[in-house]
Design brief:
The chain is of the alpha+beta class and 246 residues long. It has 2 domains: 42 residues; 180 residues, no CATH class. The chain has 4 helices and 12 strands, in the order H-E-E-E-E-E-E-E-E-H-E-E-E-E-H-H. A 7-stranded mixed β-sheet has the order 1-4-5-12-11-10-9.
């Protein structure tokens, strides 16, 4: 009999052995309960303790503010759902005497490209391929849209454990890269972002995902030589207004 089995399987075979079997079954039942309790405790601990093999991720909190949400658009009559680009917040401890709330905002550049990036003359681009939100007009980009749905939000959630480099120290802004290919070749999906201290709300920062697209020509020489920086380090520098150097 397995120690983890049910006490219901302990049944005496003869009347003379009933007392001994009863004692044995009672002991085994207690032992089974103890094993189950230990197993359950281990399971509960596994839920509260982070796995060493899992990348460090942000704990996102979805917002429901219309100002931080894109309206659905249509590309050639096909609706695009942009709810994966809804703003969200997370809290982080930067060693500044308490948690800092970080608001993550996505730009329309994550699913559009500029007119100058389009091979067609501007007047030949159909109206149902143009995105106009009042402040700027751009061209809807199917590739950027599909990649944003598949990769972007997860990449942002994993920023604490990803390799981040300084894209431009004068702005400053940063970039993290995702190699999308599994066959040994390289196709880099670049996510550019910036961070700054909120000018209105106390103990809050804004993390803007400026753009995300495939680097068709690969990395530039500057990008290849760019220095790494930790996510918490760049957030702390931005909050304190310190210059970030690569």
């Amino acid at each position: 009999m397995e120690l983890g089995g049910s006490a219901d399987t302990c049944i005496g075979s003869t009347q003379g052995e009933a007392s001994d079997h009863a004692t044995t079954c009672a002991w085994l039942a207690k032992r089974s309960i103890a094993v189950i309790l230990v197993r359950d405790i281990a399971w509960l601990v596994s839920l509260t303790m982070p796995s060493m093999s899992q990348p460090e991720c942000l704990i996102a909190e979805r917002l429901h503010e219309p100002a931080h949400r894109f309206s659905d658009v249509s590309y050639r009559g096909i609706p695009w759902n942009l709810n994966h680009l809804d703003a969200f917040t997370f809290k982080t401890d930067l060693g500044l005497g308490g948690d800092i709330t970080v608001l993550v905002l996505f730009s329309c550049h994550c699913f559009t490209h500029s007119f100058r990036w389009d091979a067609r003359p501007t007047d030949l681009i159909p109206d149902d391929e143009i995105y106009d939100h009042g402040k700027e007009r751009r061209v809807l980009d199917p590739q950027r849209y599909k990649l944003s749905r598949r990769y972007l939000r997860e990449i942002v959630i994993q920023l604490p454990s990803r390799r981040i480099t300084v894209a431009n120290e004068n702005q400053p802004n940063f970039v993290t890269l995702e190699n999308m290919n599994e066959d040994g070749t390289t196709t880099l999906y670049a996510v550019f972002f910036e961070a700054e201290r909120d000018r209105i709300r106390k103990r809050r920062m804004v993390l803007r995902i400026q753009s995300a697209y495939v680097l068709d020509k690969g990395l530039t020489k500057r990008q290849e030589k760019a220095g790494k920086i930790g996510f918490a380090t760049l957030l702390r520098a931005a909050y304190l207004g310190k210059k970030v150097r690569r």
